[in-house]
Known about the structure:
CATH topology: Rossmann fold
Largest sheet: 7 strands, mixed
Distance between the termini: 32 Å
Helix content: 25-40%
Strand order of the largest sheet: 1-3-4-2-5-6-7
Structural class: alpha/beta
Amino acid sequence: MSAFLQARFLASAAKPEDFPPETGPEVAFAGRSNVGKSSAINALAGRKRLAFFSKTPGRTQTINFFDLGDRARLADLPGYGYAAAPRDLRAGWDALIGGYLTGRRSLAAVVVLMDARRPLTANDRHFLQWLRPAGVRRLVLLSKSDKLSRAGGVKTLVSTRAALDQAAMSADVMLFSSKTAEGVEEARSLLEAWLQNKKPPEKGN
């Protein structure tokens, strides 16, 4: 059985010292507020209410950890780039996420959710730049792909891959929809393979 289908909530952490002990590889999920990150996690786990989203975008202030059976973990990072959030709250997120990305030795991969209709925003690019020193595998999921036509989806996929290559930001890229399940099985299979101690890219790539 897929590890994602065994997902269960473990703990929430508001500061690095609250992170649970590292016991196995972890895959972290990141993305702008309201991009569909919680829906993507639920789709990959085959659940409806495993990950919750706040009714007020940009207010989640914790990293939520989930056990994936006894083999791995998932970390749901707070959404980034919500301009209406108070400055001190945004600074707190930066410290929390930065502490996780730079200090979590068990981090094996990061999944970055981007709206397929508006990929690679300034905030997305900033996060990917921030992620460079982590030296982990990266998967970009172009969420809400059901909002695009088939031709539009292909065009977005090709242009996003090209933009990442041009910026020397190595990442796998997939179209994804929690509504139609496009990309769900493909993304789950890829992440499962990465969690099985596959060699990550060199740091700085």
